[in-house]
Amino acid sequence: MTTSPAPTTSAASATDARPGLTPKRLYRLLAFAEVVTWTILITAMILKYAAGIEWAVLVGGSIHGFVFLAYAFQSVLVGVNQRWNIGRIAFAVLTAIVPYATVPFDLWLVRKGHLEGGWRFEATDHPADGNWVNRLLRWFLARPLLLTVLAVVGIAALFAVLLMIGPPKIG
Hints:
Shape: elongated
Helix content: 55-70%
Structural class: mainly alpha
Low-confidence stretches: 1-17
Distance between the termini: 74 Å
């Protein structure tokens, strides 16, 4: 009995089916995290107004705020990678403003196939692949550690600036 060699796939393949953090997994992970943090924030608000536990909103709001910024960042990252138009990217970010709205939007994206495919490491003949945004995307995708560190540091810095400006006034 002979065995044939397993097919090989390029790490740059846009349809790569290997396990890992695909655009779909990243988007769905942070969309779910946004739902969880909305629940934390709503619970914290109930604790504040029903039981007088003021610090609950500070903690819950901080967690929610950080995850909101992370969700917004990954919505842009995934949206550019998936070649969403600017309206879809903006709408993805806006869904995080309404409690639990990321759920129906996520389900719609999955149903329409807008999250299918892998990361775009290489340029194709698509007209958009020559623009600076897509070149920058591919450059950062080729350096995932740098992308991750800059994303976390950037989100943390923006979060810190927003806290200095002041937390949102809720009730």
